[in-house]
Amino acid sequence: MLLWVFPILSIISQFVPVVTATRTFRFLPRELRVLSWYFYFSIVSGAIQIALALTSTRNLWVSQGWVPVQFALVMYPLAIWQPVRGLRRAVLLSIPLYIVAWGGVLAWLGDMTAMSTYMRPVAGILLIGVSIVLLVRILFDERHPAVEQAQFWTATATLMYFGGTIVFYAMVPLLLTLPLQQMRIAWSSQSVLNVIANLFYAKAFLCVDRRSN
Question: Which residues constitute the domain of residue 7?
C-alpha cells in the first residue's frame, strides 16, 4: 500500500510550481511566464481527465491533445536560453514543425489513442537533447553559479521528467508481463522522478532577481 503514496505525491507536487509561479509571476521574464502556463494548463488537463473518467467518458484524447501544447510551452524557454543565435532559431523553429508533424500524424492515423506511440517520444527526445546542450553551456560557464540560474533548474527538471517518461513508456510492454507488485514499483519510481522535477521547476521560478524587474 505504501507504493501508492508516491503517485499521490506526484499529483500533489504539480501544485508546487503552480503556486510558486503564481507568487513570482510579475517578476518573471517572458520565457518563464510561458513556462508557468505549462503548469497551469497541466492542472486543467488533469482535472478534465479526472472529470471525464468519473463519468465513464473516454478521456485519452485530452492527454494526446496536450502533447503539442506541452512541447511548445517547455521548449520555448529552452530555445530562448540558447546562447548561439542559429541554434536558438533552429530550436524555436522546431516548435511549429513539431505541431505540424503532430497534426500530420493524427490525420494519417485518424486515431488519437495511437499518438503516444509516435509523437510523445519524439517530443521527449527533442526536449532532452536541447536540455543537455543548455546544461553543458551552463556548467562550463564559470562566471555564474549554475544553482543560481533558472536555466539550470529548468533544463535539469526537463531532462529528468522527459527522460523518465521515455524510459517508462518504452518499458510498458515489458511491465505488462510483470507481476502486479513489480509494476507498482516501476510506476512509483516514475512518480518519484516527477516529484523531484516539479520541485526543480519551482526552484527555477525562485531564481529570478526581483530587484531587477
Answer: 2-212
| pLDDT, tens digit (0-9, with 9 covering 90-100), for 66-97 | 889 999 999 999 999 998 899 999 999 999 99
CB contact set of 131 (below 8 Å; sequence gap of 6+): 78, 155, 156, 158, 159, 162
Q: Which three cell numbers stand for residue 80?
A: 530562448
- Work out the number of other CB atoms within 10 angstroms of the CB of residue 44: 12
pLDDT for the residue numbered 212:
44
Stronger pLDDT, 54 or 30, i.e. the higher one:
30
| Number of separate domains in the chain | 1
Residues in the chain: 213
Q: Are the CB atoms for 120 and 169 separated by under 8 Å? A: yes
Confidence of residue 172 (pLDDT cuts 50, 70, 90): low
Question: How far apart are the C-alpha atoms of 161 and 65, rounded to whole Å?
Answer: 19
Q: Quick check: 80 and 88 in contact, CB under 8 A?
A: yes
Give, as one character, the DSSP assignment of residue 62. Answer: H
